[in-house]
TrEMBL record:
Family as reported in the entry's similarity comment: Belongs to the NAC-beta family.
InterPro entries given in the database record: BTF3, NAC_A/B_dom_sf, Nas_poly-pep-assoc_cplx_dom
Name of the protein in its database record: Transcription factor BTF3
Database matches in Gene3D superfamilies: Nascent polypeptide-associated complex domain (2.20.70.30)
Residue stretches making up the NAC-A/B domain: 47-125
Organism whose genome encodes this protein: Henosepilachna vigintioctopunctata
Lineage of source species: Eukaryota, Metazoa, Ecdysozoa, Arthropoda, Hexapoda
TM region(s), chain numbering: none
Length: 125
């Protein structure tokens, strides 16, 4: 190998190195020390979360009851697991609420009746 061949190989190596360096600098977002590319984060939407929830509920053979957003879960000792919140329901559906609560014990029925009476009281000014 001659000296001329060695010099030409080194020259092509440096040319390739410079070309690679310019390509890298084009990809870099910020200055020195910043990542070359920003990782794209894909956020899951509320619709996909809702679809996953519905598919999980379908596997458990659970049906939704329209108008009810939260249910009262009461243990046998009377302690509460969750609060009750019934959304805006029509008067026709309001008659069905005691039937829906049948699976709960007597203490929870009394609690629902007490809450209903408290809601029906007129507010004093």
């Amino acid at each position: 190998m001659t000296l001329f061949c060695l010099v030409s190989e080194i020259d092509t190596f440096f040319n390739k190195f410079e070309k690679l360096k310019t390509l890298q600098s084009q990809v870099r977002i910020g200055g020195k020390g910043t990542p070359r590319r920003i990782k794209k984060v894909v956020h899951s939407t509320q619709a996909t979360d809702d679809k996953k929830l519905q598919s999980s509920l379908k596997k458990l053979s659970v049906n939704t009851i329209p108008g009810i957003e939260e249910v009262n879960m009461i243990k046998e000792d009377g302690s509460r697991l969750a609060s009750t919140y019934i959304g805006k329901i029509s008067p026709e559906d309001e008659e069905d609420v005691p039937d829906l609560v049948e699976t709960l014990d007597e203490a929870s029925k009394a609690e629902v009746a007490k809450n209903k009476m408290a809601d029906e009281k007129p507010k004093e000014n």
